[in-house]
Amino acid sequence: MNATTSVYDDLVGQAHIVEVLRKAVAATRDVDATAESNNQMTHAWIFTGPPGSGRSSAAKAFAQALVCPNDGCGSCNACRSVLNGAHPDVDVIRTQGLSIKIDEIRDLLARVAWAPSMGGWRVVVMEDADRLTESAANALLKAIEEPGNRTVWLLCAPTLHDVLPTIRSRCRHLQLTTPSTLAVAQVLQNRDGISPQMAQFAARVSQGHIGRARYLAKNEAVRNTRTLVMKLPLTLKGISTAFAGAQTLVDSATEQAIESAEERNQIEIDDLSLAYGKGATGRGMATGGSKAIKELEKEQKTRSTRMVRDGLDAALLDIATFYRDVMMVQAGNTDALINQELEREIKNYAAHTKAHTTITKMNAIMTARTNLSHNAAPLLTMEALMCVLARQS
């Protein structure tokens, strides 16, 4: 394998994880395996870490390495097909809805019951294991308890507590860490051609989330939206401004969701209609076509709902960095501000509020994020939060 090319190249700041995964892959190739090398590999893994740490990237890199004849070169057909979702022995499960239901798990279990078609491993990467419903998690537990001979389960979740205790007790745990601002900035410069100043800014405000840092660095509209969100706390002076701020956040998240989904939705509908014979000579779509399209539209609506909630969650994380910086100033530390471009406004805000009030507001933001994840109404959740943030004492 070319030493300069590897499926692990995108795992920024995760050298400890890469070492474990390399040893595990090596153990699967060792025909004269010792007891020690056998302990390096197991049939079920959980990758946890904060948003942007790369837990799903690590799981997919591991999947590539397991099916790659060169232990994860990143350039062969097997490695590329995993990334493209075309490898017959690798299933990547990512929910576009709010949860993963038992019917989806049953369909998955039926697919992975067969032996690997290419003679290696059958690998399942579940990017959102924390979104399993209780019945779906119980169905998955049975599969992990009685795994296929050459089947590997790779589950991803923010923390171990987001996965059923019975599942996590049967998996090997790998904890990813947030990469440093410097490491993320270097990646943006070296791999994406981002200017040093922009790379530094994006890495700093994304707090080590490399995907968000790249998105910010490459999209001026996204940066403008973030600027609007970051100045929102400065506009909160009473109930009327609180309600207006809440509406601004929801409208912004909804607009971004519609913009992201509109073209994709139409392409999906057109492709499905074509598959059922629409546009062909003779009669219209085959039997079941209309029902299939209605089901697709229902899935698209669910996906749009999740995108709005995800957009609001990202905005709340940004707002939380404002109050974090305020708290740092109130504690006498101005050397590690995340939002350095707002330093003057942050210092002025800190001088006119109390530290305990800042903490209360940060806790309120975290509570709102939790409520959103539990399917609370977005606008009502934002209005309640903005009312708390508008309080001056």
Give a structural overview:
This protein has 393 residues and is of the alpha/beta class. It folds into 3 domains: 15-175, 3-Layer(aba) Sandwich (Rossmann fold); 181-218; 235-262 and 296-389, no CATH class. It is built from 17 helices and 5 strands. It has helices at residues 15-29, 35-38, 55-67, 77-84, 102-112, 134-145, 165-168, 181-192, 196-205, 210-218, 220-230, 232-235, 239-275, 289-330, 343-351, 355-373, 378-389, and strands at residues 44-48, 90-93, 122-126, 151-157, 172-175. It has a 5-stranded parallel beta sheet, with helices on one face. Helix 5 links the parallel strand 2 (90-93) and strand 3 (122-126). The model has no long low-confidence stretch (mean pLDDT 87).
Please supply descriptive tags for the structure shown above.
alpha/beta, 393 residues, 59% helix, 5-stranded parallel sheet, Rossmann fold
Layout of helices and strands:
Blueprint lengths: L14 H15 L5 H4 L5 E5 L6 H13 L9 H8 L5 E4 L8 H11 L9 E5 L7 H12 L5 E7 L7 H4 L3 E4 L5 H12 L3 H10 L4 H9 L1 H11 L1 H4 L3 H37 L13 H42 L12 H9 L3 H19 L4 H12 L4
Parallel strand pairs: 1-4, 1-5, 2-3, 3-4
Helix pairs in contact: 1-3, 3-4, 5-6, 8-9, 8-10, 9-10, 13-14, 13-17, 14-15, 14-16, 16-17
